[in-house]
Amino acid sequence: MDCVHSEKLDCEDYGGNNPVVLLLIVFLFLCCNLTSLLVNVFEMLKFEMAFKAEEVLIDIANFLVVINATANFFVYMSSSEEFQAVFYERIRKI
To answer: What is the pLDDT of residues 35-54, one digit of tens each?
Structure first.
C-alpha cells in the first residue's frame, strides 16, 4: 500500500507497516522458540540430562511453539484494522 505524505499517519495504523508490531512478532518468536533451540543444542552436544527433565523441556518447547502461533494472530488482530476487516469479511463468507 502506497502512502501519500498527508496520509502517512493513517497508513502507520496498519499492522504490516508498523515496526512495533514487527518487533513484537520477532520478540515472541525468539522467546517461544528459545526452549526448542536449547533442547536441540543439548541433543547436538550430547549433553546428558535426566530423561524426565528432557521430556518436560520438550513438552514445554512444543507448548510454547503453539502459543507463539496463537499469539501472532492476536497481535495482528489488535494492531491492524485492515487485518480485522479482512478477517471478519472472510468469516462472514463461511
So the answer is: 999 989 988 998 888 888 88
Task: Pull the grid cell for residue 25.
Answer: 512478532
Whether 88 and 59 have beta carbons less than 8 Å apart is answered as no
Range of the domain at 48: 5-93
Q: How far is CA 89 from CA 78, 82, 92, in A?
A: 16, 11, 5
Rounded Cα–Cα distance for residues 60 and 35 (Å): 7
State the total domains in the chain.
1
* pLDDT tens profile 5-17: 444 444 444 445 6
